[in-house]
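Input structure tokens:
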């Protein structure tokens, strides 16, 4: 999945596991940018009595680079605190939770938000809010009878017209995970797979994909910030062609180096914070970074990502596609065979530097030659009035890889790019295979309709990810 359980160590630490990152110009507030960082993958809605929550011992950060060096110029830090009001009951709640201060709610979380500005070798921290309430998890019609009202009450206003929310949301990322990790089954030509007689499995009858995240929840940190707060030069540029309009965004999570348990089961943490998780572009650590380097990749800062460039410029999956699907990707097979050795400058541009001016008419999100895995958002590009969930591949310059909206089908987009759909932009002599543009998860038919989104429950306003699924009303599979 996008970054769910993507590395061996972080898969054992779900509260610190960055699962998805979104960054987009807010469709209903176009003078602002919304950034959403999701954690705690694969939450079953009926996960009581210890329902899901953020980690009190995790430092969560949303990072913004606005001067094209791959380092964070602005950081929004989030720290959480959990309170148990009645330690003598096993229950999460002892009656209906009808407000964020309801005495029936036994285990609640609050959080603080701090902005850190890094400039000229100095850091300045500003506390924007403290004691901010998270909503409870969506338990069911008796425990959380008006969940929408609870979630609305948990949207907080901070200084400088910043808005925040932290709490449970419906999982917005959709993926046919079982197919992809079953030796790369791709729709709509799975019958051409070369491995173990796949055509005898009857999969040809399954035109639609299987959404592995259907009915699941996540924990989201969402922040909506005026564009003027994110780029010091924004007021003078406001042009799609200007480098000052482009920001790089990534999320990270940190733990202190030392954790000590006592005989009672309690623990305390000490020492400096170290990075245990990060996420910029979707699916990178999941699919491009090899198993032996995944934990190390999670510990590194984007500014040092040139050390991983070979995994972007010659990814293993791009090499495997013509092998797994003989005669389906003949042009890619020829390109992979060389000479010269494959050098996927298209993927490097999309994922490590941003797309420079001149490759796509009317678009750029280039941040210079520093190779850094970040979501790059050109803030001068207005939200689309008729969005395509294939983003830039669907001629929608407001979508991925120009940032990422909650409904963008990033799996289909990245699989098509890996298969060579846009390699011609940087290598005019290359002819894309027809199959590259035909890859489809079979999950995308409804994902541009914000009012009828199936189990994703997308909203048309902040925080955009929908009301989480309740434990009592788990959607049918």
């Amino acid at each position: 999945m996008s970054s769910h359980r993507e590395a061996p160590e972080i898969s054992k630490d779900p509260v610190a596991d960055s699962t998805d990152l979104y960054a987009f110009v807010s469709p209903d507030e176009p003078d602002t940018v919304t950034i959403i960082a999701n954690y705690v993958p694969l939450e079953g809605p009926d996960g009581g009595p210890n329902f899901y929550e953020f980690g009190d011992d995790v430092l969560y950060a949303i990072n913004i680079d606005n001067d094209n060096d791959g380092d964070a110029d602005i950081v929004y830090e989030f720290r959480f605190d959990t309170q148990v009001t009645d330690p003598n009951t096993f229950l999460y709640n002892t009656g209906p939770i009808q407000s964020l201060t309801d005495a029936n709610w036994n285990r609640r979380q609050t959080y603080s938000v701090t902005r850190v500005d890094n400039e000229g070798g100095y850091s300045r921290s500003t506390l924007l809010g403290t004691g901010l309430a998270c909503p409870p998890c969506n338990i069911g019609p008796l425990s959380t009878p008006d969940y929408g009202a609870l979630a609305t009450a948990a949207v907080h206003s901070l200084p400088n017209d910043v808005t925040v929310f932290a709490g449970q949301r419906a999982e917005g990322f959709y993926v046919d995970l079982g197919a992809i990790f079953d030796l790369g089954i791709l729709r709509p030509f799975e019958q051409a797979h070369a491995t173990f007689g796949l055509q005898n499995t009857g999969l040809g009858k399954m035109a639609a994909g299987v959404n592995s995240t259907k009915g699941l929840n996540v924990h989201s940190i969402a922040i909506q910030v005026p564009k003027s707060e994110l780029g010091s030069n924004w007021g003078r540029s406001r042009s799609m062609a200007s480098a000052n309009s482009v920001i790089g965004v990534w999320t990270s999570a940190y733990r202190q180096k030392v954790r000590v348990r006592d005989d009672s089961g309690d623990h305390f943490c000490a020492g400096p914070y170290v990075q245990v998780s990060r996420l910029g572009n979707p699916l990178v650590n999941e699919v491009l970074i090899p198993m032996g380097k995944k934990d190390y990749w999670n510990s590194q800062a984007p500014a040092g990502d040139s050390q991983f460039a070979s995994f972007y410029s010659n990814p293993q999956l791009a090499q495997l596609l013509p092998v797994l699907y003989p005669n389906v990707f003949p042009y890619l097979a020829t390109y992979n065979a060389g000479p010269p050795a494959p050098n996927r400058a298209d993927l490097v541009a999309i994922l490590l530097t941003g797309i420079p001016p001149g490759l796509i008419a009317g678009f750029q999100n280039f941040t210079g030659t520093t190779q850094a895995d970040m979501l790059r958002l050109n803030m001068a590009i207005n939200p689309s009035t008729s969005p395509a969930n294939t983003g830039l591949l669907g001629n929608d310059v407001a979508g991925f890889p120009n940032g990422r909206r909650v409904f963008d089908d990033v799996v289909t987009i990245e699989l098509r790019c890996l298969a060579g759909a846009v390699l011609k932009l940087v290598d005019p002599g290359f002819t894309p295979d027809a199959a590259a543009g035909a890859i489809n998860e079979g999950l995308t038919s409804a994902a541009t309709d914000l009012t009828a989104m199936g189990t994703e429950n997308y909203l048309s306003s902040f925080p955009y990810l929908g009301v989480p699924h309740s434990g009592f009303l788990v959607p049918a599979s």
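DSSP finds nine helices and twelve strands in the chain. Residues 445-454 have pLDDT under 50 and may be disordered.
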